[in-house]
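Example 9 (inverse folding). The structure is encoded as follows.
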């Protein structure tokens, strides 16, 4: 009986001593939390904690025991989550461990998901005191925003395990190869490793004793000042350069942005082990960014060398491969729609210089606003026990939608008047949810878009959008005769969640058209007499420039209409003038003196005119309206007196431009009937135009009337504007005086 008793004592002793050993064991090298919304109706998320464990003899025992952890969901609830996967990598010295659960949130909001692992690795030099770093719990968190506008949002995933070694005096870099399946923009920034007060705490805090790795450096790889930084665009984190051997911890945050709004953050806390060896890191030749139209085959050689002449392995990471951090294929469409990229001669040992070929047959399914980042990693293969070293290059690929082809424009007419019909070829990248936006501008200047710049050039305004299946559109919106209209089209793509931030295509060719001038054009609306009752305005116009006598059917008719105000739209009939369009007929002028029922008060009001043009329909013999001119107003002048000066302001609402020209200012001391002397030629810019008269007469050809303006005197002013139509068809009309 005594031997059995002793055996029980021994077993009991081992059971008692084993548990503390496990609880203080060091095994966590890195970790992060990712999320994926699994329902479009419920706020249900798949939440994954990915942990990278040390599987060497010093950490394997604790890694074996790490079967579950408590995840805090950020809404006041927690759950114990079992390990669902453990994959050994790096010759079984490390493992990727997955803890996955599903959680439904109670409502929209911002939630911080956190997890605590009891102990960090001991002897982490930049978490002093180094011999007690195992007493610091490991804490990581991820913040997500939940609202209806984000639909089925997922956090980015990191596809490159954080398990590379560094060497004293050599620049160390790590790139997480982050990828966002939703096409959101990613930004990177450094952070501080966090700890928590208790084993299952849901609250993390920065480790107060954390030291920047540069405090353990003496110089950069090139002998300069050491640095520790992260590229905010590519996510490449570099320590240039470690100055002593040992293990170090640091953290960084990936920000997720959509339409300029921060919608989430994910933290990776990772460890690097620095050794001292004669090995030098391999290098990858720089790879220029690339932009291609969807449907193009990308074939990009990747070349790597090693300064020590050692063999190397070239590997590729990124969503375009649809391969996880464990290098196993992911389910179809997990990260991108097929086809997936391949790295030919990748992940194999090669003599240096080594070459691999990145190959990707792109398609319309892969169009998105955000570029695709592909991270290439080269690892040397030194003889044991020398640790391998790595280098990275980021290859940025922008896939843009092809332009809409063969856009044309032709004049037409509808029951509502003038129109322009656009036609184009069926679009080749018409994915579900895509639509076509139609843009227009005035003027035919064709500025070719920059290569690979999507969307329309500056100056265009969106006038319509149509289904992706459409091949025609009739524009009837505010078209004016004599104006050249240019059109471009783009396709607008949905994002993967059904939103509209999937980007736009390259712009179509420009189609430009001058509407035929089948109507007269007003050239003058000038005030002859400024009076409250019997004012007088002269209106002049051209015959239809694009119409000859005998075209359509004569006789023809002008119907002049008038409205009150610069922007008046209540037009009333004023005069009817029959015409044969004979060039010698005096039928393109009308002097408006008002009527018995509508006096002309040119003192108080500007007036606006337009002309309807009629032809005789040969089939019916009836006068039929063909078109109507753009309305043109008289010039409206106002005066504001001040101390020995008068400020004038004037404007006109006309279809031609009076901008950037010389206008004449006249002054009289004898009342509104004159005589008037020209006192200044004023160079104006844009409306309203202005000039301040201080009494000086700078135009002396008609006499010098300079004087000091007196407060007890009255002064009358007139302004003559100069303008011109901007359309090339009407430029021959020359300068228009009003």
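The amino acid assigned to each position is listed next.
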């Amino acid at each position: 009986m005594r031997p059995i008793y002793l055996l029980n004592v021994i077993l009991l002793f081992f059971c008692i001593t084993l548990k503390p050993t496990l609880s203080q064991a060091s095994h966590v090298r890195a970790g992060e939390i990712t999320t994926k919304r699994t329902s479009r109706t419920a706020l249900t998320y798949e939440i994954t904690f990915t942990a990278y464990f040390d599987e060497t003899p010093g950490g394997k025992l604790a890694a074996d025991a790490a079967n579950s952890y408590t995840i805090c969901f950020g809404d006041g609830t927690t759950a114990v989550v079992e390990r669902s996967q453990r994959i050994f990598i790096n010759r079984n010295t490390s493992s990727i461990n997955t803890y996955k659960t599903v959680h439904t949130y109670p409502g929209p909001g911002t939630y911080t998901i956190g997890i605590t692992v009891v102990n960090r690795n001991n002897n982490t030099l930049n978490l002093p005191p180094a011999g007690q770093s195992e007493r610091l719990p490991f804490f990581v968190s991820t913040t997500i925003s939940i609202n209806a506008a984000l639909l089925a949002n997922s956090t980015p995933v990191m596809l490159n395990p954080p398990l590379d070694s560094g060497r004293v005096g050599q620049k160390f870099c790590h790139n997480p190869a982050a990828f966002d399946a939703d096409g959101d923009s990613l930004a990177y920034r450094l952070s501080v490793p966090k700890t928590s007060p208790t084993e299952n705490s849901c609250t993390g805090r920065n480790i107060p004793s954390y030291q920047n790795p540069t405090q353990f450096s003496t110089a950069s790889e090139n002998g300069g000042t050491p640095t520790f930084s992260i590229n905010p665009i590519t996510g490449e984190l570099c320590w240039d350069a470690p100055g002593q051997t040992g293990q170090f911890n640091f953290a960084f945050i990936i920000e997720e942005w959509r339409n300029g709004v921060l919608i989430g953050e994910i933290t990776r806390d990772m460890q690097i082990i620095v050794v001292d060896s004669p090995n030098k890191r391999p290098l990858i030749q720089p790879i220029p960014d690339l932009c291609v139209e969807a449907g193009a085959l990308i074939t990009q050689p990747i070349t790597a060398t090693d300064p020590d002449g050692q063999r190397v392995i070239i590997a590729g990471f990124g969503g375009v491969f649809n391969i996880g951090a464990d290098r196993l294929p992911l389910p179809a469409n997990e990260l991108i729609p097929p086809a997936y990229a391949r790295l030919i001669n990748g992940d194999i040992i090669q003599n240096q210089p080594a070459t691999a070929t990145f190959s990707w047959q792109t398609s319309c399914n892969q169009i998105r606003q955000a570029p695709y980042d592909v991270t290439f990693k080269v690892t040397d293969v030194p003889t044991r026990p020398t640790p391998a070293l790595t280098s990275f290059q980021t290859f940025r690929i922008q896939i843009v939608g092809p332009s809409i082809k063969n856009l044309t424009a032709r004049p037409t007419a509808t029951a509502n008047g003038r129109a322009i019909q656009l036609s184009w070829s069926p679009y080749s990248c018409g994915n579900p949810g895509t639509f076509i936006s139609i843009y227009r501008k005035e003027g035919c200047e064709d500025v070719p878009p920059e290569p690979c710049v999507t969307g329309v050039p500056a100056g265009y305004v969106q006038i319509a959008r149509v289904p992706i299946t459409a091949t025609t559109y009739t524009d009837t919106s505010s078209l004016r005769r004599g104006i050249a209209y240019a059109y471009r089209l783009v396709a607008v793509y949905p994002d993967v969640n059904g939103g509209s931030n999937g980007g736009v295509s390259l712009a179509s060719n420009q189609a430009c058209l001058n509407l035929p001038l089948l109507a007269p054009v007003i050239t003058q609306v000038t005030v002859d007499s400024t009076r409250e009752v019997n004012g007088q305005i002269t209106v002049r116009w051209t015959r239809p420039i694009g119409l000859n006598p005998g075209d359509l059917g004569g006789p023809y008719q002008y119907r002049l209409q008038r409205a009150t105000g610069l922007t008046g739209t209540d037009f009333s009939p004023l005069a009817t003038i029959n015409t044969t369009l004979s060039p010698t007929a005096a039928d393109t002028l009308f002097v408006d003196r008002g009527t018995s029922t509508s006096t002309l008060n040119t003192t108080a009001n500007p007036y606006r005119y337009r002309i309807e043009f009629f032809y005789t329909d040969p089939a019916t013999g009836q006068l039929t309206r063909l078109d109507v001119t753009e309305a043109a107003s008289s010039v409206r002048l106002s005066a504001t007196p001040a101390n020995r000066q008068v400020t004038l302001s004037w404007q006109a609402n006309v279809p031609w431009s009076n901008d950037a020209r010389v206008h004449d200012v006249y002054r009289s001391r004898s009342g509104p009937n004159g005589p008037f002397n020209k006192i200044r030629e004023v160079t104006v810019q844009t409306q309203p135009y202005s000039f301040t008269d201080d009494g000086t007469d700078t135009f002396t050809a008609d006499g010098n009337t300079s004087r000091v303006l007196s407060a007890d005197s009255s002064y009358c002013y007139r302004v003559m504007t100069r303008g011109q139509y901007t359309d090339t068809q009407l430029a021959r009309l020359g300068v228009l005086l009003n």
